[in-house]
Design goal:
Number of helices: 13
Protein name: Exportin-4
Family: Belongs to the exportin family.
GO molecular function: nuclear export signal receptor activity
Number of strands: 0
Organism: Durio zibethinus
Order of helices and strands: HHHHHHHHHHHHH
Number of domains: 2
Strand content: under 5%
Low-confidence stretches: 257-277, 284-291
Subcellular location: Cytoplasm; Nucleus
Oligomer: single chain
Helix content: over 70%
Length: 291
C-alpha cells in the first residue's frame, strides 16, 4: 500500500500525491477497480503526518471528492497522532480549516465545506481541555467576526454553520468518536455549557437581527435568508441543549429572537413567507423557554 507521509515532500511529490488521490476518487465514482482505489485513499489517512499533502490537495485540487477525502485524512491522522503533535501544530490545523471555510465561503460544493467545518469542530474539541482561554478566544474572535457579518453574507452563513457543528460535537448524542474516556466528553460538555453557549446564542441572535430588514424589504430571494434561517436553527439547537448546570438561570437569561415588523402593502409573497417562518420559530423558541 502506498504511503503519503509529509517527510521531505517537495512540490513535485505533492502534485504526484494529489493526482494519485484524484485518480482514486474518479475511479470510485466510475466503478473502476474500486477496491484498489479505496485502499489508495485509506493509505493517505493512515500515513504518518500527511497534513502538508492533504492541505495541498484541499487548496489545489479541482476534484471535489479529492478535497473531501483530504480533509477526512487530516481528521483521522490528527486524532490518531494528537499526543505527538506540538501545541502549535494542533492550533495550526484548526486555523487552517477555519481559514479554508471562510476563504471558500461562496463555494458551490457545500459538502466539502461542511466536512472541513466538521473537522475544525472535532479538532477544537480534541484540544479543548489543553488549549488556554486565550487560545480559544483567538479562534472564536475569527468566528465572531464572521457571524456578525464583518466579511459578507456568505462568510456569515459559514460562521453560523461552524458553531452548529461545534455544538453538535460537544453534545453527547451527536459527538464523534475519538477513542477517549467518557470523562473527557463530559468535561468538554460542561465547559462549553458554562462558558460559551450563552455567548453563542447572542451571536446567533445578532446575526438574525442583522439581516432581518433586508429580508423584509426585498421582493426576491436574497442570500440573507439563509443566514437568518441558519441563525434561528442555531438558536433552537442551543435552547434544545440538555442543560445540567444552573438551568433556570441560563434559560431565563437568554432572550428569544424578536423584531418589529413594518407591514407594507408592497411586501412580496416571499417576504411574507419568511416572516411566517420567523414567527413560527420564534413561537417555538418561546415555548421552549417557558417549558
Amino acid at each position: 500500500m502506498q504511503g503519503f507521509s509529509d517527510g521531505g515532500a517537495d512540490l513535485a511529490q505533492l502534485q504526484s500525491t494529489m493526482r494519485t488521490i484524484e485518480v482514486a476518487c474518479t475511479s470510485i465514482q466510475m466503478h473502476i477497480n474500486p477496491t484498489a482505489a479505496e485502499a489508495t485513499i485509506l493509505s493517505l489517512a493512515q500515513s504518518p503526518q500527511p497534513y502538508k499533502a492533504c492541505q495541498f490537495i484541499l487548496e489545489n485540487s479541482q476534484v471535489a471528492n479529492a478535497r473531501f477525502q483530504a480533509v477526512a485524512a487530516i481528521r483521522d491522522a490528527a486524532i490518531r497522532e494528537w499526543s505527538f503533535l506540538s501545541n502549535e501544530d494542533r492550533r495550526s490545523l484548526i486555523s487552517f480549516c477555519l481559514c479554508f471555510i471562510m476563504q471558500h465561503a461562496s463555494s458551490p460544493e457545500g459538502y466539502v465545506q461542511a466536512k472541513v467545518s466538521s473537522v475544525a469542530a472535532q479538532l477544537m474539541k480534541r484540544g479543548w481541555l489543553e488549549f488556554t482561554a486565550a487560545e480559544k478566544e483567538a479562534f472564536f474572535y475569527q468566528v465572531k467576526q464572521a457571524i456578525l457579518g464583518a466579511h459578507g453574507v456568505d462568510v456569515q452563513f459559514i460562521g453560523v454553520n461552524f458553531l452548529e457543528s461545534l455544538i453538535s460535537e460537544f453534545s453527547p448524542s451527536t459527538s464523534s468518536a475519538m477513542g477517549l474516556p467518557r470523562e473527557f466528553h463530559e468535561q468538554c460538555r460542561t465547559s462549553l455549557e458554562l462558558n460559551y453557549l450563552k455567548t453563542f446564542y447572542f451571536w446567533a441572535r445578532d446575526a438574525a437581527l442583522s439581516v432581518t430588514n433586508k429580508i423584509i424589504e426585498s421582493d426576491a430571494v436574497i442570500p440573507e435568508v439563509k443566514v437568518c434561517t441558519a441563525a434561528l436553527r442555531l438558536m433552537l439547537q442551543i435552547l434544545n441543549w440538555e442543560f445540567r448546570h444552573d438551568t433556570n438561570s441560563t434559560k431565563a437569561s437568554i432572550n428569544v429572537f424578536s423584531a418589529v415588523v413594518r407591514h407594507d402593502n408592497a411586501s412580496s409573497k416571499r417576504s411574507e413567507c419568511v416572516l411566517v417562518q420567523v414567527t413560527g420559530l420564534t413561537a417555538l423558541l418561546q415555548s421552549l423557554l417557558e417549558s
